[in-house]
Specification:
The protein is mainly alpha-helical. Helix content is 79%, strand content 0%. The protein starts with a helix and ends with a helix.
């Protein structure tokens, strides 16, 4: 008879890694939207603010903020996230072994721990993505504000 607690633990580990995968996808979507917004602001407000080719301090600040916003591209770079455990790995490590293969409870236990390890490793990188997005949001705000002040004179 299998231990229902291990089923619960395995299900929670699976749910956590799936949630993390969605969070990374959402970060990349937000990064794309942020970069698009920054480019639109630069093309309209930046072009108008820098029209005289001798920008003031606010024009320079807007330009610097736009350059800082490009840091968000970091979020879009491919990374080695691990959100799944491959079938071959599971078979080789837990089923087709020289020792006795894991029963269902042992398998759930081992896979839950492996998913947790993957979650921990992914979370360090996901934290850096969140930081890059935060910096990008602040930079976009500064970019808009600085160029509006520059245009308003």
């Amino acid at each position: 008879m299998s231990d229902e607690r291990l089923e619960l633990v395995f299900n929670e580990a699976t749910r956590a890694i799936e949630h993390q995968s969605r969070a990374v996808d959402e970060s990349r979507t937000r990064a794309g939207a942020l970069l698009t917004a920054g480019a639109i602001v630069a093309s309209f407000l930046g072009a108008q603010a820098l029209e005289d080719q001798n920008p003031g301090n606010w024009g320079k600040a807007g330009t610097a903020a736009f350059i800082l916003l490009v840091v968000v591209v970091y979020v879009l770079f491919p990374r080695g996230f691990s959100f799944v455990l491959g079938a071959r790995h599971i078979i080789d490590t837990h089923i087709d072994t020289d020792d006795h293969p894991n029963d269902e409870d042992q398998l759930r236990w081992a896979l839950a721990l492996e998913l947790e390890d993957a979650w921990d490793a992914n979370e360090r990188t996901r934290g850096r993505l969140a930081l890059a997005l935060s910096v990008g949001c602040v930079a976009l705000g500064i970019e808009v504000l600085a160029w509006l002040i520059e245009i308003g004179g």
